[in-house]
Amino acid sequence: MQTKLQQRFERLLQQDDSGRPSRRLIEDAERLVRLIHDLARRVESSRPLDLSLMELAAYAIQLPLRQTDHLAVGKLGQINRRRLAEQAIEQLFRWMGSDLHEQVLEKLVQLLGDFHEKSPVTVEARLLSDVLNLEDFGLTGLLSFACRAGLHGQGITTVLEGARKREQYGYWEVRLREDFHFPVVRDLAKQRHIELREWLQRSDWP
Fold first, then answer.
1. 71-77: long-range contacts at Cβ-Cβ below 8 A with a sequence spacing of 24 or more?
2. Do residues 57 and 115 make contact, with C-beta atoms less than 8 angstroms apart?
3. pTM
């Protein structure tokens, strides 16, 4: 991603919707970018992936997360990815439209409109979907859930109850079966889940 575009995104993401300074969304975008590059080397593709486009998407997805009160979140804390994509496209045009070349903007909108579908069309969209789903698993997922709970005024008890309900309802098994397009990413998610579940079982949290 071009330095100018990255700096523009970072200026938008360095504070929340109340104007308070925050590194949360920038760090999340940077982590997604690192994960995209790592997994792009592991998945099979008949052509080189457009990593620059995926980097832009990783930052664009953070834009709606500045306004957590308006983000559609399920009863177990999961974010509605379709709504997230719609809001990202809307805010992309609002904040970044003039900074992006028309063809790049068109491709980015297509990627954001595709990744949350059941069967994304492009390899980039399938990989972006898997990256975001992987982030829900393991300690990273638990900490992200805790951050969202804290932003909504909820505490540790809510986080622990949510984690237990997910295990009780077989939530993770369903997601492992349905939410991944690349076996290598599914295997990583499964390992993350096993490690976190074992840690939770060993903990003495009430």
1. 73/148, 76/162, 76/165, 76/166, 76/169, 76/171, 77/145, 77/148, 77/149, 77/162
2. yes
3. 0.89
Query: Which ranges constitute the DSSP H helices of 14-155?
Result: 24-40, 51-60, 81-96, 102-114, 123-134, 138-151
Residue-wise pLDDT tens digits, 114-123: 999 999 999 9
66/112: higher pLDDT: 112
117 close to 85: Cβ distance less than 8 angstroms: no
Q: Can you list the domains of the chain with their CATH numbers?
A: 3-202 (1.10.3210)
Exposed e or buried b for every residue in 158-184, given b needs 16+ CB within 10 A?
A: bbbebbeebeeeebbeebbeebbbbee
- What is the DSSP-derived secondary structure letter of residue 113? H
Cβ distance 99 to 4 under 8 Å?
yes
